[in-house]
Amino acid sequence: MDGFNSRHLALAIALSTCMGSAWAATSNDFVDKAAAGGIAEVEASRLALEKSASADIKAFANMMISDHSKANDELAALAKKNDIEVPDSTTLVKQAKEKILDMRDESFDAAYANNQVKAHEETIELFKKEANTVTDDRVKGAVDLKGFAQKMLPALEKHLAMAKKLQAAHPGK
Questions:
Q1: Is residue 61 classed as helix, strand or coil in its secondary structure?
Q2: pLDDT along the chain (173 residues), means of 10
Q3: Cα 2 off chain centre by
Q4: Counting Cβ atoms within 10 Å, is residue 22 exposed (0-12), middle (13-18) or buried (19+)?
Q5: Alpha helices, DSSP H only, in 3-54?
């Protein structure tokens, strides 16, 4: 990527792909992964606002900050209501920032767009799995989290479509 350290962006975005690809079925795992992904989306998008000069990248980043902040708040409220521990956001923000601190500006827009596509594809996979789970009413919060996942899927799919348009508009060199 023309001298751009894409490995660092990939590591940061890995947080937004919900910290791994092995999706466990428990409520706590879904909350952990969804919360980590939401925080990483916000942090990567804040970086995009700083590093990008492209109006479309900045508009998308602002939308990601707004939408994922609202979703993070809603998820935290659901978790609290159901006594499910939410990962410490300060730690997750610190982890995300540490991974992206030394990125350079070359090809940032292309890297951001490419990683937004990948992050949203993997996040949609996580949310579809949660949305389609057979819920056990005895598991505290399972019904609420399934409903949350079902509610969020259309917005995530919209984000993916928009990220694909950004990807086409900002091809890597």
A1: helix
A2: 44 42 55 87 90 94 95 91 82 68 65 89 93 74 89 96 95 75
A3: 25
A4: exposed
A5: 6-16, 27-51
Q: What is the pLDDT of residue 49?
A: 94
* d(C-alpha 53, C-alpha 51), whole Å: 7
Q: What is the pLDDT of residue 25?
A: 40
Whole-angstrom distance, CA of residue 115 vs CA of residue 96: 14
pLDDT number for residue 107: 80
Q: What is the pLDDT of residue 83?
A: 87
pTM of the model: 0.76
Sign of CA dihedral 168, 10, 18, 72: negative
Enter the tokens of residue 156. 């995530």
CA distance 70 to 73: 5
Nearest to 43 by CA among 6, 78, 75, 69: 69
H/E segment holding residue 148: helix 142-169
**How far apart are the C-alpha atoms of 33 and 127, rounded to whole Å?**
10
pLDDT at 36: 85
Residue type, 14: A
**Can you tell me whether residue 110 is helix, strand or coil?**
helix
Q: Which residues contact 100 (CB under 8 A, 6 or more apart)?
A: 8, 9, 11, 12, 43, 44, 47
Q: Of 75, 68, 93, whose CA–CA distance to 158 is shortest?
A: 68
